[in-house]
Here is the input.
Amino acid sequence: MGLESWGPQTFTINYAYDQVRRVYDGEFSLVFSVLWRCKVLPSTLLTAWRVLENKIATRVNLERRRVVVENSLCSLCGKEKEFSSHLFFVCSIAWRVWSLCFGWLGVSHVIHKDPMSNFLQFRMSQTLDSVNDVWGAIWVSVVSEIWKHMNCVIFNRGVVDASEVFALVQMKVWSWLHAKSRYISFSYSDWVLNPLACMRLVP
Here is the structure.
């Protein structure tokens, strides 16, 4: 984008931001239209939105805002800098949570470290929108529970446990689905044993 493209408009940071967002409007619109359809709690959606927009308070983001932190290493694995992409998708603990999730769903998946690309890839092709809404809810739940678990480890001296995070994901998505629709009849044990079959029963 050259200077001539600004036209008579006075240059401001806000104007530049609007122009850049307009270039990527298609991608942003798709990501967030899918996100807002997820059958989850508003507070959980807010966490997911912050992850997608890189507005979550990771140690690296806190340092960028000139907040004093002990160090910038990941609070879960302690091996690499705590970027959003690392904390939610690359960290060995997060990787374990996603692996448990993929095993439960019976799928193989390449984990993209870019949050938006990861979210858009976490869908099934040639299936009902209602099914993909559940997939979206699972994604939202995974990033939300990783975030909660990290805070528990930091502030409540919790023990890092990927299996616990995964179990909470299973339980919370099931409870959200039941809270959103009175037509859902499958039990929690059905959901744990055969999630794909249960998804097809979601109206």
About this structure: Residues 1-7 have pLDDT under 50 and may be disordered. The radius of gyration is 19 Å. The chain has eleven helices and no strands. Residues 92 and 184 are 35 Å apart (CA to CA).
